[in-house]
Description:
- The chain has 570 residues and is α/β, with parallel strands linked by helices.
- Helix content is 55%, strand content 9%.
- The protein has a nine-stranded mixed sheet, with helices on both faces.
- α1 runs antiparallel to α2 and α14 (368-390) crosses α17 (418-440).
- The two termini are 71 Å apart.
- Mean pLDDT is 84; it is low at 1-12.
Amino acid sequence: MDSFPMELQPNLQELKAYTDRKMELAAILRHLYQNLRQEHLTDAAEQAGALSRKLAEDHFTLATIGQFKRGKSSLMNAILGCQLLPTGILPLTSAITVIKYGPTEKLLLTQNDSHWPKELPIKDLIYYVTEKENPSNIKQVSRATVELPLPFLRRGVEFVDTPGVGSAITANSDVTYTFLPQCDAAIFVTGSDNPLTSTELDLLHQAAAYTGKIFFVVNKMDLVPETERPSILNFISKILQQECPAQEIQLFPLSAAVGLAAKSRTDETAYKKSGLKALEDALAAFLAHEQGQVFLSRIIYQGIQLMQQTNQFSEKLISLAQSMSDNPKIAACLSGLSTPAADNKESPLRYTFPKPALIEDLHRRGCPACQYIAKITFDFLAWYQYQLSTQDEIQDHLAQWGGLCSFHTWKLHELSSAYGFSLGYNHTAETMVKKLKQASLHTDSQNVPLTFSQDTTHCFLCQALKAQEALYLQTLCQALQTADLKRFYTRSDGLCLRHLDQLLKIVTTPATKTFLLDHSAKQLEIFVEDMKTFALKHETIHRDLQTENERQAWTYAAIHMAGEKNIWLS
């Protein structure tokens, strides 16, 4: 019999919404981590990093907890539909047993003296997690991981059996309490005989502080006469409502032993009567619909706590938490949160381009205006690629512009790592997806533009560089009124024809225009002569006689005619 009869296929829309929210939370935690690192809050930064790793792993830890000898392992066996975990009168040893998905059945054993787990047959599990075969955990087992090809484990669910608390083996209780922060949800198992001891209530309080969902199981109901069952369940329910006011209290009275036996002989009636089916149906529905929300809620809650402890503030984390404020723990956390007063934010592009250094530029070969634009473009993009991968405001700014033009997109791509570009440009690409989908709904409307690629007119960097280009030429125009600058200009290659055109439009003195035109003609004539000489020596096998100027003339002639190849401004 299928141990999870309500196993459902994931709803793609729900999955997309969950993925979007998870990625949003990942970006928030990344920035929180970076801020904490900058503040030298190493321990807090490590906690933020651990939350990010949990998010990346995207596994859901569902643990069975309770006092020893309440039948936790028996319940897990019943849900799994096989006698996998050892059971008995003696308590198990102080080791966590994790059951997760794997294509084949196997046991991975992690011990305290080794970083690498060793693989063993599943039948050997009993030799490592029972007090009889491993007294006081002399074999130093820290975790036993069982991989099984079960459908309900495929979505990243890790089913965990924790040591029972309250036994004479105090290490068992310590291990369970230490593991609680790693639980996303828990199955709390008490017994129909002597239910809810002070030890159990203490464990329950600790679990409720960490886990987003608790399933309350009352095991061994087959040992109680039917006439006494309602009063026992009523008593347990009242106590739980008093002790766990933030949890939804739903009891699952059952007999794990009867349920497993019913499954083994495929007795549907006995299976339902055992109470196991009701629990499994609730687990199946939870794993199909609520698991992701509980998983994210827990990480958001811990993120807010970390934010409060370190006096950090993330508007986006608060906004995301508010969207999930139906979670009582998040709502309580938000109610006690003080929001800093809003301040006037600067433009996200807090970057200042350097002033032109004309004399230095004129000492270099090629067009000085082109080289200035190429240099400030490189310097800006080197700064921008890091800012884009770490700052929300920069990402939002780029998304609003719709990205950069093709040339500057690829220049940014050259300077970025795959990781940095993926972080920085995904928001822009995501925004474009929304625009494309919106446009697809209105293709018959004349008011909806059907052009989405960016040209220089709509590239914010092109606009900024054009302003710097105009400033450079204006500075050069004024400087050409001095004899010193003219002398330096005469010894240079001068402007390319594109920049010469622009400069001539702002020069007002005829003599300066004549000077610029004569210099350009002279330089280009020199390049022509050097190219002809280079070609002649090349074809007559006199390449050893070529000068450096002749070998470079073809490049500088192209620069003079078309401008530097590393800039793109129309």
